[in-house]
Amino acid sequence: MAITIDKNKCTACGKCVDICLEDVLGIENGAAAVLYPRECWRCGSCVYDCAFGAITVDLDADNSIRFIEF
Ligand code: SF4
Ligand code: SF4
After folding, report:
1. Which of 1, 13, 60, 62 is the most exposed place for a label (fewest CB within 10 A)?
2. Higher pLDDT residue, 68 or 16?
3. 70: in domain
4. Is residue 12 assigned to a domain?
5. For the domain that residue 33 is a member of, what is the CATH number?
6. 64 assigned to some structural domain
């Protein structure tokens, strides 16, 4: 899976759920969960907005759209 959640770091704040335009993520059993992995286009927004470093996305996967900081 291209996106993983470290449940030991996740505080279930919900920010990644709000930021994802594709509704890939949700909160289940007290932590973020990847509900629709095939909808993830690897933009990286959830990774950059998680203050706890709990999300990892394989940004080097083929056909990914890269997050660009200006
Ligand atoms: S933003 Fe980070 S800490 Fe908050 S729910 Fe998502 S993965 Fe968990
Ligand atoms: S990388 Fe982008 S599309 Fe994928 S789960 Fe995170 S915010 Fe959603």
Report:
1. 62
2. 16
3. no
4. yes
5. 3.30.70.20
6. no
Q: Ligand 1 within 6 A of 16 CB? A: yes
Residue 28's pLDDT is what? 96
Per-residue model confidence as pLDDT tens digits over 8-66 = 999 999 999 999 999 999 999 999 999 999 899 888 999 999 999 999 988 666 555 55
Residue 67 within any structural domain of the chain: no
Domain count, the chain: 1
Asked whether 19 lines ligand 2 (CB < 6 A), one says yes
Tokens 């007290």: give the residue.
30
Q: Among 25, 52, 56, 57, which residue has the most ligand 1 atoms within 8 Å of its CB, making it the best to mutate?
A: 52
Give the position, in ligand 2's atom list, of the atom nearest the Cα of 45: 7
